[in-house]
Design brief:
Blueprint (H helix, E strand, L loop, with lengths): L3 E14 L8 H8 L8 E14 L10 H16 L2 E2 H4 L10 H12 L8 E7 L5 E4 L2
Parallel strand pairs: 1-3
Antiparallel strand pairs: 1-2, 2-4, 4-5
This protein binds ligand LPXRUNBV.
The ligand Nc1nc2c(c(=O)[nH]1)N=C([C@H](O)[C@H](O)COP(=O)(O)OP(=O)(O)OP(=O)(O)O)CN2 binds next to helix 4.
């Protein structure tokens, strides 16, 4: 039996950030990013959904063990991002604006090499209850 199915693991992390383009003057940064450009930074309670799509293994009934997936996310993503200032503490954002889009892409690029090639990986990241990003789309 070849059942292509998706399994999703949800995790969360809390991070501070500031949206800012260092190539622009302060006025333009404020005009584009508004309150998200506040130099004092601000925090979000991010909700992360990691979706793995693949064939269900006939022996286990699993696509991937959610405990294993959770441990991967914790070790490689949450450990780096949780209770951190993304702009100041996380190397991936030293030269990259930590928008929800860029955070989702960074998370995908961290996890992709850790997931078997024959599985699809999709990231959904909620920055607020009403704003979320999906990558790849
Ligand atoms: N395309 C993007 N637009 C915005 C991003 C982003 O990452 N990508 N980020 C922000 C702010 O950082 C923040 O997420 C917005 O916060 P807020 O305006 O408070 O959003 P809420 O949904 O909670 O509030 P509303 O009252 O519903 O607007 C802005 N844009």
């Amino acid at each position: 039996m070849n059942f292509k199915t998706a399994i999703v693991r949800r995790e969360h992390f809390n991070s501070a950030h500031r949206l800012h383009n260092p190539m622009w003057p302060d006025e333009k940064n404020f005009a584009v990013f508004g309150k998200c450009n506040n130099p004092n930074y601000h925090g979000h309670n991010y909700e992360l959904e990691v979706k793995i799509i693949g064939i269900v293994n006939e022996d286990t009934g699993y696509i991937i063990d959610t405990k294993y997936l959770s441990d991967l996310i914790k070790e490689h993503v949450l450990h780096k991002f949780d209770h951190k200032n993304l702009n100041l503490d996380v190397e991936d954002f030293k030269n990259l604006n930590p928008t929800a889009e860029n955070i989702a892409i960074v998370i995908y690029n961290i996890l992709r090499p850790l997931i078997e090639e024959n599985y699809e990986l999709k990231i959904k990241l909620y920055e607020t209850r009403r704003n979320f990003v999906e990558y790849p789309y």
